[in-house]
Amino acid sequence: MRQITAPFSREENGGGGEWADINAARHFLTSAPPWREPAANAPEASTPPNRGPPSGPRRGSARLGVSGRRAWISARLWVPGDGPGSPPVRTGRYRPGMTHEFDLLRTLSTGIADRTGAWDFIRGFAAHWATPLGEGDGWGEAELVAVEERLGVRLPLALREAYQLFGRRRDLSSNHDVLLDPAQLYVDPAREALVFRHENQGAASWGIRLADLDQDDPAVVIRADLADKSAEKWESRLDRLSLTCVEIVLSESLHAPEGLCDFLSDLGQDGIDVLEQGCTRLPFPACPVGEEEPGVRWFLGTDVLLRNDDDEVLLVRARTESALERVRELIPGDWLNDYWQADSPAARSCEQ
Predict the structure, then answer these.
(1) E-assigned strands of the chain?
(2) Which part of the chain has CATH 3.30.310?
(3) What global pTM score does this model have?
């Protein structure tokens, strides 16, 4: 493990190449008005000034720890006040993706463990990366019972809970591929699986084997739409439906319409190195089940979620425009949405 100690500013480790935005740690610890640098003669952080109400120049220190592919920032903050030698006003640990209320990495770690954790993750992700879930965002019991009566099947508990939690939220489930409405659910012609999701151009379908519908949280299978229909077959996707729902919400966030997403079709080795050295790899299991590295890998940076597909394609979702621009700067390339920004040279040339 290597550690870096620095004042509140961006610092780089020239030897290892890791970097961290210490401003993010400062924001995490303080939620303060715009930062004011301390005077040149301000006390050093190792000798805290008196503690008091959060006013006046603040001073602090932060430390970046890197262990394998995980990174964090530990920080301390002091403000003027009364009482010599008082402890820091706030201490804390920041990881990329954290806000005051939501730690994406920690919540995802529990979210992939079981059904309850998956629903908690989706609630937190919606609240801090989209719009909080509320009443009316899910389907009611009557619609789900109608499906069961129409198809003559019993819906697994996880599927019912997913539809009741976020089934009507197209921004969480259907920006790109499509989560079917309850009235659109169907059993495939071979009567092998209950189909609940389609690829946006009909190239694939997601389903649950009919033999597994009696399980609370069954495995999910996927079938490609092929020219040779005799070659089509259902293949394993993920071991649990609730885990698939987490993957759906993460993947659909990469296609959000609000201009905070981008796509790079030729990642290259330099871009891969930036991801592996400067971001935290998320602990999402191989998808599809049994896929070998590199496959699909998820990463988290400061206010950015990234998916690396087979070390070739990079999809990015940011929480802020500045965070998205920072990724473009760190990984130069032919970014799809950057090229077509309204004020870009390419867009201006099209207007002439």
Answers:
(1) 2-7, 11-12, 19-20, 59-67, 70-78, 90-94, 178-179, 186-187, 193-198, 204-209, 220-224, 235-238, 261-264, 280-281, 296-301, 304-309, 313-318
(2) 254-342
(3) 0.71
